[in-house]
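Notes, p. 3: input format for complexes.
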Amino acid sequence: MIYIIGAGISGLVSAYQASKEVGGNNIVILEKDTNIGGALRGVFYPEQGMHFDNGTHIFRMTGIAELDQLLINCIGDSQVVFHDKVKIGAVYTNKLQENSHYPDIRERSNLNELKKNIFDTQLEKSGINIREQHVNLLNFAYERFGALYSNEILLPALSNLFRSDPKCLSSMALNLSGLSRCIAFSEDEWKSNSTSTDFRSVFGYPNQDTMPIEFENKLKQFYSKENGTNSLIIGLKNLLEKAGVKIETGVIDFQLNQKTNTIIFKNRNGTIIQDKNPIGIILANGLLGSAIVLGIPIPKFQKTPRLAMYHIGLDSSPKRNLAYFCNFNHHYSFFRATNYKMLTNNCNDNRITVEILVDNPSNIPAISEIIKNLKDIDFLDNERVSFCEFAYLKSYYPYPDLKNTQFINALKTDIAQHKVPENICSFASHGGAGFFQNNVVALAFEETAAFIKSLK
Ligand SMILES: Cc1cc2nc3c(=O)[nH]c(=O)nc-3n(C[C@H](O)[C@H](O)[C@H](O)COP(=O)(O)OP(=O)(O)OC[C@H]3O[C@@H](n4cnc5c(N)ncnc54)[C@H](O)[C@@H]3O)c2cc1C
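Output follows (456 residues plus flavin-adenine dinucleotide):
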């Protein structure tokens, strides 16, 4: 048997890939939760007939044609909505900016000085990589944008968003918030400078609606109208079960003895199952999960704020045509709001979700306060709340505290250097580009193919 640990999107995609080579009857997926799907599970409220995602909503294609087609097929023609672009905005100085989620600095009195400082910095740039997630935010920001823009705009915004002194944050804060560029040029000025990749990597195009097609990301994004990300999970599950793959949920105490090549776990009935000669074991249960199974000590993580979420049904759809926006209001900070009508292309869709970083449970803003804030910035008009649920998320973004991100990086290295028998594969050791789902599924797809080949 080949065992896949974890039934999130990585585990399911991995099972699909493995089943093509060895046949579904030889594969068992073990999931500790009573439901499959991991971070993409979502929540359905039967009384209201409403589905909400849990933080992750839209999928971007991976560029691997077979994989993209597989995922789109899982959703089905009548449900899939394609987007060339998904509009995101942000709140700066208490104003909702719709043109871009990058800080638009064109109205600042010292614009020329800011631009000069960024350009001078670019000339001296030592080639810092935007994908480096565990380096000090201050150094990273100075090297990318210069001191002036960093001190005046970027660092205060990030410090407010993550409620932390920027000295303690890592460059991952920039990736998580999407603040990797700024808007400092008009459309014509931008176009005349656009041949330089350095220029484009720091200065964003100022209008989301008129972005020249040659600079758009060619990989489309897609969403499932009714069941959101959960559609992918249901679609994959059906496909796998048809192929004969067994999915065991409610499995606990999974243990792996690497020396004797034995696995042992308790199934949902409490029966202890042992396999003394598994052909292969694929760990698709995240970085910490993999480390635990492999017996690699986990560094002490800094206490992180939890991520909580309001699922909200309004009496009519929101006023604005933005899919997402982030709030950088200095008096009141929530992380991200999602406007479902822009994901489903249904102008009557009245669902929104609001993700909040919760550092102290007694400080969770009441729903009335959130709605007032959304009205103050003109995202909502007179809409009223007709349904609302609050929940903490099970999984959370790795908080971009410098110590945490360095721990994550060190753990990835430990896992990569940890010698495992040839019949074990762990995606966590190849951490690579990141924690975004399209990287994650591409990795699961490609690593599984290579692993199965190596077993043969
Ligand atoms: C709030 C939030 C917002 C996000 N937003 C975006 C976004 O906008 N865009 C984007 O691209 N990505 C986003 N992501 C990331 C994306 O959701 C993840 O990259 C992806 O879902 C991870 O899938 P996975 O299968 O690797 O892990 P998971 O979904 O975490 O699945 C791992 C599974 O393993 C199981 N497991 C763990 N240990 C064991 C064990 N010992 N035995 C058995 N089972 C075990 C868990 O129960 C879980 O079901 C977001 C993530 C979060 C949390």
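Residues 437-455 form the longest helix (19 residues).
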